[in-house]
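Review this chain:
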Amino acid sequence: MHPGPREGSVRLGDGRTLAYAEYGDPDGQVVLGCHGSPSSRLERHVEDPEDYRRWGVRLVVPDRPGFGRSDPHPGRRVVDWPGDVEQLLDSLGVDRFAALSLSGGAAYALACAHEFGDRVRAVGILGGAPPPDVPWPWPRWIPSRVRAGLHRPAQLASVLRPAFAPLAVRPELIPRYLQVRLNSADRRVIGRPAVRRVLATTFAEGMRNGSAALAEDRALLFRPWGFPLSMVAQRVHIWHGTQDWQVPVVLGQVLSTMLPDCSAHWMAGEGHFLVFDHARDIYRTLLD
């Protein structure tokens, strides 16, 4: 059995509880993990969590509002997240840090970079998409009512909630669903029992309160994020699989063109969960 994370929570200034988990070396270089959607503080990017200790990394992953054990934050925006993070990191005595996001966490990692300035040393984006400030190449399967609600997140969340409700019934089965739905590279990665356990655990924890947090989170990603990407000054590294069927690589390419200092790594033949095969190089690049 691998050792579990160190877990805790902080009481925020407005009375909400923010839960978090830590992996790795308590004295290591701090990486703020911005989890996917759905996911939770239990998200990690390695099969053996002791890798973080070996690499000298302290991974800190908070639950976003409504996910896991963090309280909801009604009416929240993407740009509100750095305020929660600041209170958490100050309580942990963390000064400088890197931010690393998977999938739907990209907006939140970039928001932290924008708000914290030099306190964020670098940003990593794994399979992320841009804000809807530019026309997206929408797949045909996106319902027109979803597109119509992009700038009305409360309305869009109410549309999405019943669509996501089945995921909340057995969230631990999401990896098996993805294994069928995604490309061969992702099927190979998720087919490894340790990876499937990591994903099943973090998805189940993220959906412990039902589908409302997921619906709200997705709705927020489809409206302007509240800050210009042109003002993100830090080096942003993007890693994106060319065969990512969850977030098509064209979206990563659009995101890369919107960032002033971007180093893009287009991973030939890889899928959405490529990080499990490349974590060591990704963390090394992020912390160099």
